[in-house]
Amino acid sequence: MRQYREELWFHTKTRRAYINITDKVQAAIDKSGIKEGLCLVNAMHISASVYINDDESGLLQDYDDWLEKLAPHEPISQYRHNRTGEDNADAHLKRQIMGREVTVAITKGKLDFGPWEQIFYGEFDGRRDKRVLIKIIGE
Ligand code: ZN
Description:
Elements: E1 2-10, E2 17-20, H1 22-32, E3 37-43, E4 48-53, H2 57-70, H3 89-98, E5 101-107, E6 110-111, E7 118-123, E8 130-138
Antiparallel strand pairs: 1-8, 2-7, 3-5, 3-8, 4-7, 5-6
The structure holds zinc ion.
Zinc ion (ZN) is lined by residues 81, 86, 88, 92.
Protein backbone atom coordinates (compact mmCIF):
# COMPACT_ATOMS: atom_id res chain seq x y z
CA MET A 1 0.00 0.00 0.00
CA ARG A 2 1.23 3.47 -0.86
CA GLN A 3 0.56 6.59 1.13
CA TYR A 4 0.81 10.32 0.60
CA ARG A 5 0.37 13.28 2.95
CA GLU A 6 0.07 16.96 2.17
CA GLU A 7 -1.06 20.11 3.99
CA LEU A 8 -2.91 22.98 2.34
CA TRP A 9 -2.55 26.40 3.95
CA PHE A 10 -5.20 29.10 4.04
CA HIS A 11 -5.29 32.69 5.25
CA THR A 12 -8.64 34.21 4.34
CA LYS A 13 -9.14 37.98 4.32
CA THR A 14 -12.61 37.60 5.78
CA ARG A 15 -13.82 35.93 8.97
CA ARG A 16 -15.94 33.45 6.97
CA ALA A 17 -15.20 32.00 3.54
CA TYR A 18 -16.15 29.01 1.39
CA ILE A 19 -13.35 27.87 -0.91
CA ASN A 20 -13.55 25.16 -3.56
CA ILE A 21 -10.42 23.02 -3.00
CA THR A 22 -11.30 20.20 -5.42
CA ASP A 23 -8.47 21.05 -7.86
CA LYS A 24 -5.94 21.13 -5.01
CA VAL A 25 -7.07 17.72 -3.75
CA GLN A 26 -6.93 16.25 -7.26
CA ALA A 27 -3.43 17.73 -7.67
CA ALA A 28 -2.38 15.91 -4.49
CA ILE A 29 -3.76 12.66 -5.88
CA ASP A 30 -1.84 13.27 -9.13
CA LYS A 31 1.38 13.84 -7.11
CA SER A 32 0.76 10.70 -5.05
CA GLY A 33 0.58 8.52 -8.16
CA ILE A 34 -2.13 6.48 -6.44
CA LYS A 35 -4.76 5.20 -8.88
CA GLU A 36 -7.07 3.15 -6.63
CA GLY A 37 -7.66 4.07 -3.01
CA LEU A 38 -9.12 6.56 -0.56
CA CYS A 39 -8.52 10.24 0.00
CA LEU A 40 -9.19 11.84 3.39
CA VAL A 41 -9.40 15.62 3.57
CA ASN A 42 -9.86 17.25 6.99
CA ALA A 43 -9.71 20.69 8.53
CA MET A 44 -6.95 20.79 11.16
CA HIS A 45 -8.71 23.51 13.17
CA ILE A 46 -11.86 23.39 15.29
CA SER A 47 -13.25 26.55 13.72
CA ALA A 48 -13.13 25.39 10.08
CA SER A 49 -14.73 22.60 8.04
CA VAL A 50 -14.18 20.46 4.99
CA TYR A 51 -17.41 19.40 3.30
CA ILE A 52 -18.78 18.29 -0.08
CA ASN A 53 -21.54 20.04 -1.95
CA ASP A 54 -22.40 22.05 -5.06
CA ASP A 55 -20.23 24.98 -6.20
CA GLU A 56 -23.11 27.38 -6.81
CA SER A 57 -22.84 30.96 -5.61
CA GLY A 58 -26.44 31.19 -4.39
CA LEU A 59 -25.99 28.05 -2.32
CA LEU A 60 -22.75 29.33 -0.79
CA GLN A 61 -24.58 32.47 0.36
CA ASP A 62 -27.47 30.32 1.59
CA TYR A 63 -25.03 28.34 3.74
CA ASP A 64 -23.60 31.52 5.20
CA ASP A 65 -27.04 32.97 5.95
CA TRP A 66 -28.24 29.67 7.45
CA LEU A 67 -25.17 29.27 9.65
CA GLU A 68 -25.50 32.87 10.84
CA LYS A 69 -29.12 32.16 11.82
CA LEU A 70 -28.11 29.00 13.70
CA ALA A 71 -25.08 30.54 15.42
CA PRO A 72 -24.85 34.31 14.91
CA HIS A 73 -21.37 35.75 15.40
CA GLU A 74 -22.77 38.70 17.37
CA PRO A 75 -23.45 39.53 20.07
CA ILE A 76 -20.33 37.66 21.14
CA SER A 77 -21.43 37.97 24.79
CA GLN A 78 -24.22 35.42 24.17
CA TYR A 79 -21.71 32.54 24.25
CA ARG A 80 -20.09 31.11 27.39
CA HIS A 81 -17.01 30.12 25.34
CA ASN A 82 -16.28 33.78 24.65
CA ARG A 83 -15.85 34.44 28.38
CA THR A 84 -12.37 32.97 27.86
CA GLY A 85 -11.55 36.17 25.96
CA GLU A 86 -12.09 34.55 22.56
CA ASP A 87 -14.77 35.73 20.13
CA ASN A 88 -15.13 32.57 18.05
CA ALA A 89 -17.77 30.46 19.83
CA ASP A 90 -19.98 30.73 16.74
CA ALA A 91 -17.14 29.36 14.60
CA HIS A 92 -16.89 26.23 16.77
CA LEU A 93 -20.64 25.66 16.36
CA LYS A 94 -20.58 26.31 12.60
CA ARG A 95 -17.71 23.83 12.24
CA GLN A 96 -19.75 21.18 14.06
CA ILE A 97 -22.67 21.57 11.64
CA MET A 98 -20.54 21.58 8.47
CA GLY A 99 -18.25 18.76 9.60
CA ARG A 100 -14.57 18.05 10.06
CA GLU A 101 -13.65 15.92 7.05
CA VAL A 102 -14.60 14.09 3.89
CA THR A 103 -13.39 10.80 2.48
CA VAL A 104 -13.61 10.26 -1.29
CA ALA A 105 -12.89 7.15 -3.32
CA ILE A 106 -10.11 7.35 -5.91
CA THR A 107 -10.81 5.43 -9.11
CA LYS A 108 -8.43 5.41 -12.07
CA GLY A 109 -6.51 8.26 -10.44
CA LYS A 110 -9.51 10.59 -10.13
CA LEU A 111 -11.85 11.68 -7.34
CA ASP A 112 -14.86 9.39 -7.80
CA PHE A 113 -17.65 11.94 -7.29
CA GLY A 114 -21.38 11.87 -7.73
CA PRO A 115 -23.00 14.56 -9.89
CA TRP A 116 -22.00 18.14 -8.91
CA GLU A 117 -19.96 17.07 -5.89
CA GLN A 118 -17.10 19.43 -5.05
CA ILE A 119 -14.87 19.65 -1.98
CA PHE A 120 -14.96 22.88 0.02
CA TYR A 121 -12.95 24.42 2.81
CA GLY A 122 -15.35 26.28 5.10
CA GLU A 123 -13.67 28.99 7.15
CA PHE A 124 -15.53 30.39 10.16
CA ASP A 125 -12.77 32.24 12.02
CA GLY A 126 -10.27 33.32 9.37
CA ARG A 127 -7.74 36.11 8.93
CA ARG A 128 -4.96 33.84 10.22
CA ASP A 129 -2.96 30.87 8.96
CA LYS A 130 -4.88 27.60 9.01
CA ARG A 131 -4.36 24.16 7.52
CA VAL A 132 -6.14 21.28 5.83
CA LEU A 133 -4.68 17.77 5.85
CA ILE A 134 -4.86 15.51 2.80
CA LYS A 135 -4.05 11.83 3.39
CA ILE A 136 -4.18 9.39 0.51
CA ILE A 137 -3.79 5.62 0.74
CA GLY A 138 -4.01 2.99 -1.95
CA GLU A 139 -2.15 1.47 -4.85
ZN1 ZN B 1 -12.54 29.20 20.55
